Structures are given as structure tokens and as C-alpha cells.
């Protein structure tokens, strides 16, 4: 394939924005891909920054999701522990709430641990 501006000059790659063939003189190497020098460099780096941002957001959500059961268990334990420590002898509302939190944490944890095993089940 030839450069879209210089017929007869072999293209070294495609612009990530407009997908035209670029020769070394027309290509701007941005490190993660090529762009038309002077015309699409900004578009391509913006698109890459957005993509990186999305990747990071997805990673954050994944790690937060795996922390959810721990969060419920810890909150539940703190609520129960606090009232027991304060000398509660009966089922106070915060102990009850703490038990609910801990229960939700266990249920969420069990659901999450079971979920990845479903596709592996063979009949
Ligand atoms: Zn371009
Ligand atoms: Zn060229």
C-alpha cells in the first residue's frame, strides 16, 4: 500500500483516526499507533487517553466489586462488636443490623465465589 499523500512511497502504517496509509514523512508515531502528522495527532491521542481512562475505570470497578462482601462483613462485625463491647446483653438494633450486614456479606461472597464455576460445569 502507498502513502495517501505520496503515491509510489510505501506506507509504514495506518492513521488510527482516518485509517489512511502513511509514509515515514506523513506519520506521527505517538507510541501506541500512528496518526496523520499535523492533522490527526490530537484526535488519536485523545481517543487513546479516553480508552486508557475506560480501562482504568473498569479495573477499579472490578476490584471494588470483589471488596463488597468484605465491606459488609467488616461493617457488620464493627456494629456487633461495638455494642457487645459497650456491654449489650440483649439483641440491640445495631447488633441486629450488624447480623444482617454480615449475612449479606456472606451471601454476596458465596454468590461471587460460585459464579465463575458455572461455565466449568460439564454434563
Ligand atoms: Zn488521519
Ligand atoms: Zn507520505
From TrEMBL:
Membrane spanning stretches: 64-82, 94-113
The entry's keywords: Membrane, Transmembrane, Transmembrane helix
The keyword Transmembrane appears for this protein: yes
Protein name as catalogued: B box-type domain-containing protein
